[in-house]
Specification:
The chain is mainly alpha-helical and 140 residues long. It has 5 helices and no strands. The chain has helices spanning 3-19, 25-39, 44-59, 65-86, 91-109. Helix 1 crosses helix 4 and helix 2 runs antiparallel to helix 5 (91-109).
Amino acid sequence: MDPELSSLASTAATTVVQLLTTESWERLKSALGKLWSRAHPGREAALETQLDDSRAEVMAAGDDVEQVRAELTAEWQGRLRRLLAAEPGIAAELRRVLDEQLGPALREQSPDKSDIRMRAAVSGRGRAYQAGHDMNITER
């Protein structure tokens, strides 16, 4: 499979699993259902059942939620990869759904950490260290 399509399937699967337990759940179900029905007319209900089952799994996972999410991401990646392999023309539509519907829904649930704003004021021999992520400082 084309590496670009494989990457798209991976991104889409991660997004799907992350949105399963959010307030955007219905938006996910509707958007993916419409996309699926374009590639596989008449199979939208089966996809919605798979999404419902995945959601139920995550909701019931308890302490194993990260493991369940990882397993579901792999499952959805496979489903989406098969969809794209069978219908490569649907890739543009999947990208649009991710960019216009699911991406914004995901950002609503977990704001982008790249929007961190920091300010430091230092005088004399002072030093300021700032990081929006991990930082390691070694001084002698």
